[in-house]
Amino acid sequence: MANSTIDSEGFVTVAKKKSVKTRRFLNNCPLTTHETESVELDTCLKNILKAKRDVESSSFFNSFITFLAGITKELDKSIAEIVCFGLGHISSCKAAQHQLGLLLLLEEQFHCPVEVFDPVFCSVEENVIKELKLKLSPTNCEGKRKPVLSGGCTLFFFPHCPKELSNNLLYTNWNPRHIEHCILYSNSFEKIRLDIPFRFLKSYHYLLQSQEIVEEVPVPNIFHFPDIFNDLSLHYFPSHLRSNVQSPFWESPEPNYPASETEIVGNG
Ligand SMILES: C[S@@+](CC[C@H](N)C(=O)[O-])C[C@H]1O[C@@H](n2cnc3c(N)ncnc32)[C@H](O)[C@@H]1O
Fold first, then answer.
1. Is the beta carbon of 87 within 6 A of some atom in ligand 1?
2. Where are the membrane-spanning stretches (predicted)?
3. The pTM is what?
4. 150-188 tens-digit pLDDT
5. Domain positions in the chain
6. Residue 38's pLDDT is what?
7. Element (H or E) spanning 84, and its range?
8. Which of these, 122, 151, 114, 124, lies nearest to 42 by C-alpha position?
9. Distance 112 CA to ligand 1 centre (A)
10. For 225-260, what is each residue's pLDDT tens digit?
């Protein structure tokens, strides 16, 4: 069994056999439920709206919208829905507040429903989501969520989330009819494939195989706080890549992750 400790930045250090250690980014705001409950709803909302203005006035936001517009133009689909996983503690965490700020700006831009889920939300944070008129998802789907199939596509927004979420999302939509309606804003698939040794990626079949069909657009990390939108990319699945693969490619066994390496919060 691996031993885990959480340091002051919210990184989990997993000590494996002997001195081998890996550092997993679990959540950069390790607050207890008790601490987050004590934060007032009004203060939270004020901080989130301030973060939203901060993102809105940034050249990062302009460049994000420009990249996204390029993708929707190429796919010839508008954004009909946004699904967000893993914002983290929006009551207290600067990264989560700015990411939520971006999400609110995208809602205004596309006038579409936005659904949000994070298993760490405390009741104040759930009330913040409701107060902002976003839909709080009642269930933990572990990333196994289908997109809208008519009237456009779904933007899945899950910055700095466990790679099981990406792999599960790909697994659930691993067929040409569903995947063409998905755009993902998440940790760069390319960076995951390059940074993590292959032996640790064996359970992530869909993340590995997606390189045949995915177009990845890195969104430059030009926001003034360097640790909020870093290492994130937009991913989509253009028809010329989808049509290159043969039918066995789309076979989709259910993923199964080694318990000692799993970062996702399951619904069990
Ligand atoms: C490393 S934190 C990222 C937080 C924030 N987005 C950031 O960039 O700092 C990963 C987040 O994924 C969330 N998470 C874990 N399992 C999840 C699940 N099944 N569905 C949605 N979010 C999940 C965690 O609760 C945590 O808030």
1. yes
2. none
3. 0.88
4. 989 999 999 999 999 999 999 999 999 999 999 999 999
5. 1-30, 32-261
6. 55
7. strand 79-85
8. 124
9. 23
10. 999 999 999 999 999 999 999 999 999 999 999 888
